Amino acid sequence: MRKFIAAIFILILVIPLLTASLITSAVRSWIFNRDFYNQLFNSERIEFVLENSNLLTPLIEQSGGNEEFAIAANAAFKIVFDSEYLESQLDGFVNQIFDFYQGSSPELNLQIDLKPIKDAIEEEKKTEFIDAFVNNLPNCNSGKHAEFTPFGYMRCLSISVQSDPLKRELSEEMLPRLLPLIPDSIQATSIDLSPILKWTSMLGLVSIQQAFNIGLIILLAISVFLWLVVVCIADKRFRVRLRWLGGALILPAILTIASGFLVLSNIAQNWSRAGVQQFSATPLGADLVTSMMDAAQTALSRIGLAFLIVGVIAIGLASILIALGILIRPKS
């Protein structure tokens, strides 16, 4: 009867709690790890796309600029997208994430800061910017002069137009029109979890990170306590209790390992693709979306590995407990 009661409690309490504890411990190993996010956002693929893709073209076209103007302006902006700027933006992403975790910000609001770019265009890289813009404008058809859209954006470059006067005109007239068109920042992702923060503050917790850590400690304590109590109910003999301890841990370990393989599967990749499309607040272009998918794949590999490591450790512990229960001989 004792064994039957113990088996029921293991099925309805111990196994779910141990499984939750193992999975949460695996999540804890990466979710608050700054190196994980540095690796995620400092991928060479993201830097390559930011330097070479037409990142600003959709924004300019949405604001009234034509395709020719957008392509030329985008080429000019690449002059100021240097490695120092990219590094500062990627570090800013990591800082924004940890500000959110540590309670400094109620929202996870990842933004690309374009203010340094606009400042560089107005000051030290103004000449290079205008040169790149003019050099990337298409030539007008034969017999036509330079065309402008109703918004004042240049559509093509007349062959008869002298380069230097045009550049001065662009510097004095077109550039003041272009810079206000470009926002100070591009919102890449925005997730409002302020209700969760309010709930944790009611418990006296000041951040999501602290709430997570305290919750994990409580979960582990309850799981281990019930694990030991139920095993003590099952049998009075120490060696048999060891086998019950190991047996109760096997299924949670298997479920944790299965979670790792699920994260590494195509199903998780499809979910991450859907997430990128859902949380992209602006049309950043196919190249940037592809780079975000590559970063997501890097993240999934690290997350899946964490589940596998925790699951394998649990399997090893369960095996040791069972082996000890078998090796220990009953007293004569």
Kindly describe this structure.
The longest helix is centred in the C-terminal third of the chain and has 42 residues, at 286-327. This protein has one domain (2-327). Residues 147-152 and 200-204 have low confidence and may be disordered. Helices cover 72% and strands 5% of the residues. Strands 1-2 form a two-stranded antiparallel sheet. The chain has 332 residues and is mainly alpha-helical. It is rod-shaped.
Short structural description:
By secondary structure, the protein is mainly alpha-helical. Helices cover 72% and strands 5% of the residues.
Assembly status: single chain
Mind telling me the C-alpha Rg? 29 Å
Number of helices: 14
Total number of β-strand segments?
2
Overall residue-averaged pLDDT value: 75
Would you spell out the secondary-structure blueprint of this structure?
Elements: H1 2-31, H2 34-41, H3 44-52, H4 57-62, H5 67-77, H6 83-101, E1 107-113, H7 115-122, H8 126-135, H9 163-181, E2 185-192, H10 194-202, H11 208-234, H12 238-263, H13 266-279, H14 286-327
Antiparallel strand pairs: 1-2
